[in-house]
């Protein structure tokens, strides 16, 4: 298909900015725009996903942006159906969605979702106001009002189960992270159970406005969670928040960027190439992107890789077996 003069000039201009986008790539089947499914405002997904979308759009010559969603579970569904080109997801919700166990669509196997690249680990952490007197999981009073993030999010899917396993009795509340932070300050919530990449914007904002406690798991609590859920050990560095005087013990899940499997191979190849070859730009979007590096590709053990993404990894010495490629 012959490109219009205006589009050709725009493409040439974008290539001239060159952050690794190929000059001779055939774009005839590329979409005219794209959207990235993130999560609620005030969370890491929104900051990371919106920034990444803008970075990609600025450098490949196609308009794109982030979209507020309910988080990983909903992103799996929207990418599967093609309503979104790209999304961000956590491995636990991804597994449940692929297996047909998503609460959003029970029985539907969301198998038109492909992996693109590793993002970062999502730590599970608890935050309260210092004035609450809550300094440990065991201190949380029976019947406490706990905010678990947007319905269907990673936090909402797994944190209630984790706290129930640890014997905590609570009233479950949902909402965006920024909104929940406001409710905590106003005394409408007792605790927020966060699952998001660090630093979490909503927690950083709370620290500026009031005194908070960031509660870690005890070693025994962590071991209980590790034995019951698909998580791994994680340490929140003391430097993450001004509130922390020392590293905090936590558990975490890995996050991956995902793509609709029907997207053109060359398009996903160029987006993956741009992202994986410019980690400094990604870190400037969000510090959590320090681990958005190709060496972590092996953290995905079950989401099939998009052929475009797999081509970039295989060309650069990161072996993805053909059986793992859609």
TrEMBL record:
Key words of the record: Signal
Q: Superkingdom, according to UniProt?
A: Bacteria
Pfam families listed in its UniProt record: NMT1_3
Q: Which residues form the signal peptide?
A: 1-24
Q: What is this protein called?
A: C4-dicarboxylate ABC transporter substrate-binding protein
Ranked from the top, the taxonomy reads: Bacteria, Pseudomonadati, Pseudomonadota, Gammaproteobacteria, Oceanospirillales
């Amino acid at each position: 298909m012959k490109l219009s003069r205006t589009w050709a000039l725009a493409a040439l201009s974008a290539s001239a900015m060159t952050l690794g986008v190929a000059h001779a790539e055939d774009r005839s089947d590329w979409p005219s725009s794209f959207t990235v499914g993130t999560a609620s405002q005030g969370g890491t997904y929104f900051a990371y996903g919106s920034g990444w979308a803008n970075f990609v759009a600025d450098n490949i010559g196609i308009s794109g942006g982030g979209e507020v969603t309910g988080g990983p579970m909903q992103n799996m569904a929207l990418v599967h159906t093609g309503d979104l080109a790209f999304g961000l997801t956590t491995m636990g919700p991804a597994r449940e969605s692929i297996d047909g166990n998503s609460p959003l669509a029970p029985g539907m196997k969301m198998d038109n979702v492909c992996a693109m690249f590793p993002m970062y680990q999502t730590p599970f952490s608890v935050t309260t106001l210092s004035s609450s007197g809550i300094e440990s999981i065991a201190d949380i009073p029976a019947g406490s009002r706990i905010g678990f993030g947007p319905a269907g999010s990673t936090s909402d899917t797994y944190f209630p189960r984790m706290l129930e396993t640890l014997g905590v009795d609570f009233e479950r509340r949902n909402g965006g992270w920024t909104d929940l932070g406001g409710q905590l300050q106003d005394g409408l919530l007792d605790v927020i159970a966060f699952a998001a990449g660090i630093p979490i914007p909503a927690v950083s904002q709370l620290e500026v406005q009031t005194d908070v406690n960031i509660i870690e798991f005890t070693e025994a609590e962590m071991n209980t969670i590790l034995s019951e859920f698909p998580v791994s050990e994680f340490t929140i560095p003391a430097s993450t928040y001004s509130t922390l005087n020392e590293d905090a013990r936590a558990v975490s899940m890995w996050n991956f960027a995902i793509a609709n499997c029907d997207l053109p191979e060359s398009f996903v190849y160029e987006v993956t190439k741009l992202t994986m070859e410019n980690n400094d730009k990604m870190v400037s979007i969000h510090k959590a992107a320090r681990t958005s590096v190709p060496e972590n590709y092996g953290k995905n053990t079950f989401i099939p890789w998009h052929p475009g993404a797999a081509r970039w990894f295989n060309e650069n010495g990161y072996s993805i077996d053909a059986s793992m490629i859609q």
